[in-house]
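Below is how a single chain appears once it has passed through the pipeline. First comes the sequence as given, then the structure the pipeline wrote out for it. We keep one example in the README because the format questions we get most often are answered faster by looking than by reading.
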Amino acid sequence: MNLEFYLGALLYSSEMKKHIDYFFDANQSDKLKRRKELRIKVDKVHDTLYKYSHEKLNKFVEIKELAFIYEYFFQQSNNEPMEDNIKESMIEISRKCLTTLN
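Resulting structure:
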């Protein structure tokens, strides 16, 4: 998959599902299958954000594009003041992302 797809899934999940056909080329017989596969991916991203569990988070950070996005924003917020427990959680997620990216 590509970075644009996952950014869209993070920011505009309902719009992504409406316009999912822009993210793949397929002949008519494969179009429905491919559309369904990509909508499932959008739903998984949305569920991870809004129906959190550790298992979903682990699957989230195993996707290179999502790990890259998280790591980018983590690095941008590195100097921001925040509670220690939140910072520790963010660092742990970052470690998992870096494992995926390496």
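Helices lie at 3-11, 13-18, 28-50, 54-61, 64-76, 84-101.

See the next section for the split statistics.
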